[in-house]
């Protein structure tokens, strides 16, 4: 009996400490986004299923529900980790995702001119969604080692991992994810205390890479040119999304009454924001932006308060990754930036995207969680 008490006591105390230290507003806001995603899957899922020839009109709705439950489980379970285990998990996830990124180039599933997925038992896995948050945590830890072991090649090693990862992204090719990871990595790089000269050199190299991609990849050149001069190119998808949001007006045309979900093949993924704007209006669209902004702002604020350079830089990069992806997706939907082919975090349909975003926020919540190690004293 005494042994049972000793066994359960630390576990109960640990869960109590986790409950007290967790940033519940961020978790609740993330759950709200998952709920919005389920609601929007009811709107955009059936037309997508009919267009792709599925007999079950709720095919995507059911999958979205399963993926959302898995995402919630991943987010909560990851938030339980201590900072050292967050880094260890990130290292394991990055190693696995990196191997799969190499495998994709040889035997991956190709769709829409890109080779980004692995097909397994009727499901598609996109390793890049898991490589992004894992790399940011690993990079923050490596850069933090400069303060402990100053003679080590920590900065060079970090840049090497980043360049190798982005290189695999570009070979798929996936320019959108490469740009997103570059900006989030820059935030981690800067917060980690790297010198201004190196940081500016890194940004200059990124700008040079954009020029190379523009010159060598036709689809990148088309997207940029069509954004700069839309009258000379086919911009049907972006024009349709903007018209749908404008048609929604202040309060929308009503649930189920939207047209964009039957007009665009990616309405349940990349253009889900336009579906929401059309059916629920400007007020709902603005409220959704506020939820994304709240999570990003609160997360960055909590990260800035950390004294330890590793969790501070890692959490900053993770919340920047989350906020930037939302900003890019919404920016494409309203025509502010060129199309990127990127999902809206926790709202768009897609298992890899949902679980990858849940991993991002779960790791971030673990890193900013207030440490209450009282349960260790009971061991």
Strand order of the largest sheet: 1-2-3
**In percent, how much strand structure appears in the residues?**
under 5%
**Element pattern in H and E:** HHHHEEEHHHHHHHHHH
Question: Strand tally, please?
Answer: 3
Structural class: mainly alpha
pLDDT < 50 stretches: 1-7, 372-379
Integer-rounded radius of gyration: 21 Å
Overall mean pLDDT:
87
Helix content: over 70%
Q: Which descriptor suits the 3D outline? A: globular
User: What is the total number of structural domains?
Assistant: 1
Q: Major sheet, described briefly? A: 3 strands, antiparallel
Q: What's the tally of helices?
A: 14
Query: What gap, in angstroms, lies between the N and C termini?
Result: 16 Å
Give an overview of the whole structure.
The structure is a single chain. With 379 residues, this protein is mainly alpha-helical. The protein has 14 helices and 3 strands. It has a 3-stranded antiparallel β-sheet with strand order 1-2-3, with helices on one face. Helix 2 packs antiparallel against helix 3, helix 2 packs antiparallel against helix 12 (272-304) and helix 4 (83-107) runs parallel beside helix 6 (154-171). The longest helix has 33 residues, at 272-304. The chain is globular, with a radius of gyration of 21 Å. The relative contact order is 0.16. The model is unreliable at 1-7 and 372-379 (pLDDT under 50).
